[in-house]
């Protein structure tokens, strides 16, 4: 049973390590979506949206058509800036 006490610190650290691993994965996913091109989509709606422009290194407004497109599309400039802060 004393060996169980030696394992306790490792068992307590495991959730912390797994959370940090998830943050790294989430950050890399955000970077990938922010590097996608700004795409209006194939429909003809008029939805004011924001996308990250990696060449200008900032979020810019564009008109989304309402369908198609990609994940580099945000409802507000603040949401775009927050999601693409690591780029």
Distance between the termini: 49 Å
Helix content: 40-55%
Total discrete domains: 1
CATH-assigned homologous superfamily: Pancreatic trypsin inhibitor Kunitz domain
Number of strands: 2
Spatial order of the strands forming the largest sheet:
1-2
Rg, rounded, reads 20 Å
CATH fold-type name: Factor Xa Inhibitor
CATH architecture: Irregular
Main β-sheet: number of strands, strand sense, barrel status?
Answer: 2 strands, antiparallel
Report low-confidence residues grouped into runs of 5 or more: none
Secondary-structure map:
Blueprint: H1 2-34, E1 47-53, E2 58-64, H2 77-83
Antiparallel strand pairs: 1-2
Domain BPTI/Kunitz inhibitor: 34-84
Signal peptide: 1-26
Organism: Drosophila hydei (Fruit fly)
Explain what the structure shows.
- With 87 residues, the chain is of the alpha+beta class.
- It has helices spanning 2-34, 77-83; strands spanning 47-53, 58-64.
- Strands 1-2 form a two-stranded antiparallel sheet.
């Amino acid at each position: 049973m004393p060996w169980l006490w030696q394992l306790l610190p490792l068992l307590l650290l495991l959730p912390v390590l797994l959370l940090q691993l998830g943050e790294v994965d989430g950050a890399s996913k955000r970077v990938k979506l922010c590097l996608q091109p700004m795409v209006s989509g194939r429909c003809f709606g008029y939805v004011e949206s924001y996308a990250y422009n990696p060449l200008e290194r900032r979020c810019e407004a564009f008109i989304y058509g309402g369908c198609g497109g990609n994940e580099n599309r945000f409802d507000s400039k603040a949401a775009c800036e927050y999601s693409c802060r690591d780029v």
